[in-house]
Amino acid sequence: MNTGRRSFVLGTGALMVGAAAGPWTRTAHAAGYPDKPVHVIIPYPPGAATDNLGRMAADVWSKELKQSFVVENKGGGGTMIGTRALATSAPDGYTLGMVDSAFVINPGLRGAEVPYDTLKDFKPIAQIATAPFVMVVHPSVQAKDLKSFIELAKASPGMLSYGSAGVGSGPHLAGEQLRQSAGIDIQHIPYRGGGTVITDLLGGQVQFAFATVPTLAGHIKAGRLRAIAVTTSQRVDLLPGVPTFAELGLPDVDLTPLFGLIAPAGVPDDIIQTLSGIIATSVRSGEMHQKLSKMGFIPVGSTPAEFQRRIQDEVQKWTQVIKRGGVVAQ
Fold it and tell me: Taking the CB of the first residue and of the last residue of the chain, which one, N or C, has fewer CB atoms within 10 A?
C-alpha cells in the first residue's frame, strides 16, 4: 500500500445498539459547529440507494444543526473517485462522505488500485442501515430447498448459472461464498446492472440469483421465483417462512451490506460524536427509521466504534473470499 494513500475506516455497526448508545446520543453539539455549509460526498450518481440514504442523512443534520448540508455526487472508479476526494479533504468536519459495501470490498478486489488506505484514512460516523438479501431460483430448477439445490449442483457441475451486477458486486460475492462453503461448481455471469439480471432470471436465462428482499418479494409471493434462503443472521419480516443460510448449516454465506457515513481521519472527536448521535437517534426511533423501514432496509444507527469494528471485519471477510475464489476485477 502506498504511503501516500488515505485509509477509510468504516465499522458496520451491530444491529443491537439500544441502551448502550443512549448517553452519547444526548451529548451537546460540538461548540460552534457547524458555522458554515457542510459538504456530503456521495460516490455515485444521483438516484442510487446510497445516494438516497446520504440525502436523508444530510436532511436530518440540516434540520437538527440549523446549517446547510450540501450533497455532492462524485461517481466513478467503483466509488473510489468520490471516496478519494473525501480522504484528501481537510479534516475539519466540513466534508463528510457516504459509503456502502464497495468500500469494504475494494481493498480485496482492487488491491493497489485503491488510492487511499481504507483502514487508516477515515473516521466512522455511523452505519445507517443494512439490507436483507435472498437467494432465489427459477421455478424450472428442480430444487425446493438448499439441500436439494446443492445436490443438483453437485450432480451437474457447472450447469447452474447465476447473474449479478458485475464482478466484485455483493450478489456475485454471495454466490462465491455459496460456491466455497458448499463445495459446488456454479457459473457466474456478470451483467451491467441488477435490473437485467432479474429480467433474465424471470425468463430462465439464468437459474438463480441473489438480490434484496424488497426487490424480489413480489416475484416470490406470486410464484415467479422460489426463495431458498436469506443471507442475514435472522429471518426477514417480509419473508418469515424463508430460513437463513446459517440455519441451514452455511453461516459463511453472509451478505449483509452496509450503508454508512464517514469523515476524513483527523476530524475532532466531538464533531464525530455530534454527527453520530443525531443520525443514530433518527435511525433508531425518528424520521429516518420510518423511511428506512418503508424502503425495505434494516435500520442500524450504530456508534462510531461499532461501525469501525464492522468495517474491519468486512474488509477481512471479503478479502479472504476474493482471494480464495481468485476473483479479479474487470
Answer: C
